[in-house]
Amino acid sequence: MAKVVRMYETGGPEVLRYEDMEVGDPGPGQVRIRHVAVGLNYADTYFRNGTYPVPLPAGMGVEAAGVVQAVAPVSAM
């Protein structure tokens, strides 16, 4: 089970929730990555407080590095 930081509403740091999240198999055009490092920067505070609107619920950290664990099969076109 993976751990994620999510928000269901905008606001201060109190809106952040540390949660478990099930990670499934990748769908068409997707890969599954085991994150090794996730960058948080000042723009993430703008997502959290609503300055930069994002669809909710949303997660924190939009920059990451990791290891590819699974690749979805290529479907016939």
Task: Name the average pLDDT.
Answer: 92
Strand content: 35-45%
Q: What is the C-level CATH assignment?
A: Alpha Beta
Helical content class? 10-25%
Compute the separation of the termini in Å. 34 Å
How many individual β-strands? 5
User: What fold name stands as the CATH topology?
Assistant: Quinone Oxidoreductase, Chain A, domain 1
Describe this structure in words.
The termini are far apart. The relative contact order is 0.31. This protein has a single domain, classed as Quinone Oxidoreductase, Chain A, domain 1 (Alpha-Beta Complex). The mean pLDDT is 92. The protein has one helix and five strands. It is mostly beta strands. The radius of gyration is 15 Å and the shape is elongated. Strands 2-1-4 form a three-stranded antiparallel beta sheet, with no helix packed on it.
Keywords for this structure?
elongated; Quinone Oxidoreductase, Chain A, domain 1; 42% strand; single chain; two-stranded antiparallel ribbon; 3-stranded antiparallel beta sheet
